[in-house]
Automatic annotation (TrEMBL):
Protein name, as recorded: Cell envelope-related function transcriptional attenuator common domain-containing protein
Top-rank taxon, per record: Bacteria
Chain residue ranges for the region called Disordered: 66-104
Keywords tagged on the record: Membrane, Transmembrane, Transmembrane helix
Residues annotated as domain Cell envelope-related transcriptional attenuator: 195-358
Biased composition (Acidic residues): 76-89
Family the entry assigns: Belongs to the LytR/CpsA/Psr (LCP) family.
Bilayer-spanning residue ranges: 112-136
Record carries keyword Transmembrane helix: yes
Length: 458
């Protein structure tokens, strides 16, 4: 150390600089050590918390269960001021009549039953907590996560106004990976890759007062943006595919997968897609069979030129398995005005019926059906920002919403295919629909028609 009174020369200034540096280093070291002690204390408390909870639960169970088997309570278990359980109460008086003895025995039995019930309930709660956590982890592990979202895209309009909205981009893929021959959908060798057989946006605004599902025709003519090519077998993205104009919507997914389709839909709608859900044929069938079929109303027999007779009956018909899959896939039905719009209508009706069935007491209060449905959904679903926790959060926020009030819309087109066999978008009408969803204002179909101008008086 240097003496502050010694003559100041170059050597003294140098030593003082070293002293000051060492002092700062020592102070910094002490601060870091203090912070590390605080972090260690927090870690210790967090690590001890589960043990404390377990010990508290075990002690509570002991207080209820041990008296039932004749053991003494642990030392210190009695409340302060209570007499020990094995010492008689000097103020107690023995019953003097048979009626009093009978009442006492009945009271003792009631206490015994209450204690048994409390023990069982406490055990079930304790076990259910662990089982629920393990089940959630297990279910989440079955979801196949695929990169799809871009929530900070410059294509999103009025991003602040969409805070709290839940937008699901739902794709029904015709991927054949893992399909069995008896399913009648082909295999990966005969039909390689994957196309977006069904494309929908499910929109739930922040106030949770409505839900709107917008369907897109698979043959909608679009301009595909530049995207990375996607391998549906591995889920990986690779080299860049150049942009292409006047292509079918389902080819966008075939080339660029979930990312490219999300990018295109956000460009078209301006909506922020914060969930992507892909579902294959096999998963769809499993979900329907898990709830023991879905009932739809059939106005006339559905006879498809490719799939054959799908539904011969009319009126309320319960569809399961292959029949349900063909019902939503059929796009060459005799009598349909176009190949896409008849199928879109059937898909919307079936989705509404499936949602109603899944939210019914028949499923929610049947552990077998509910578990089977979640199993089928998780095992055959892929995407991003989906899982048990997200679904539970969404379901909790939608309590009280009647699934029968979900609105179904179809993106506006001219209604006739062009010379390329594509559906042509009515851009102004589509923009009006998406603006209503973003601003949470009445849908165009809810607004009263504009009256025609009065004819001139002659």
């Amino acid at each position: 150390m240097t003496d502050q009174l010694e003559p100041i020369d170059e050597s003294t200034r140098y030593r003082r600089k070293i002293d000051e540096t060492l002092a700062r280093f020592s102070a910094a070291h002490d601060e870091l050590a203090a912070e590390e002690r605080q972090r260690e204390e927090r870690r210790r408390r967090l690590a001890a918390r589960p043990v404390q909870l377990l010990e508290q639960t075990r002690t509570k169970l002991q207080r209820v269960v041990l008296p039932l088997v004749g053991d003494k309570e642990p030392e210190g278990a009695a409340e302060e001021g209570e007499a020990p359980a094995d010492e008689p109460d000097p103020t107690a008086k023995a019953p003097r009549t048979r009626l009093q003895e009978k009442k006492q025995r009945r009271s003792e039995r009631s206490v015994l039953v209450a204690r048994i019930a409390a023990a069982v309930l406490a055990g079930l709660v304790f076990l259910a907590t662990g089982v629920a956590w393990g089940a959630m982890t297990w279910f989440d592990g079955k979801f196949n996560q695929i990169a799809a979202l871009d929530e900070n895209s410059a294509d999103i309009r009025n991003a602040a106004g969409q805070t709290g909205d839940e937008n699901f981009l739902i794709v029904g893929s015709d991927i054949r990976e893992g399909a069995a021959a008896e399913e009648g959908v082909g295999d990966a060798d005969g039909v390689p890759g994957a196309r977006a057989d069904t494309v929908m946006i499910a929109h739930i605004p922040a106030n949770r007062k409505r839900a709107v599902v917008v369907s897109f025709p698979r043959d909608l003519e679009v301009d595909r943006p530049e995207c990375q090519r996607w391998d549906s077998a591995t889920g990986d993205y690779g080299e860049t595919a150049p942009a292409a104009g006047r292509v079918k919507l389902n080819s966008v997914y075939s080339v660029g997968g979930p990312r490219c389709l999300t990018k295109l839909v956000q460009q078209m709608s301006g909506m922020r897609m914060n969930h992507f859900v892909g579902l294959d044929f096999h998963g769809f069938k499993g979900m329907v069979d898990a709830v023991h079929g879905v009932q739809v109303h059939v106005e006339q027999p559905i006879d498809d030129e490719v799939l054959g007779m799908v539904v011969a009956e009319t009126g309320p018909v319960t569809l399961r398995g292959d029949q349900a899959l063909n019902y939503v896939r059929a796009r060459h039905v005799k009598g349909d005005p176009t190949s896409d719009y008849g199928r879109i209508k059937r898909q919307q009706e079936f989705l509404k019926a499936l949602l109603t069935k899944t939210m019914s007491r028949d499923v929610l209060f049947d552990p077998g059906k509910l578990t089977g449905f979640i199993n089928a959904f998780a095992a055959s679903t892929f995407g991003e920002n989906i899982g048990v926790q997200q679904m539970l959060t969404l379901a909790q926020s939608m309590r009280g919403m009647d699934p029968g009030t979900v609105r179904f819309e179809t993106i506006p087109t001219v209604g006739e295919a062009n010379k390329r066999g594509n559906e042509v978008l009515r851009k102004e009408k589509a923009a009006e629909l998406f603006r209503a969803l973003i601003e949470n204002s009445p849908l165009p179909s809810d607004r009263p028609p504009v009256p025609a101008s009065a004819a001139p008086v002659r």
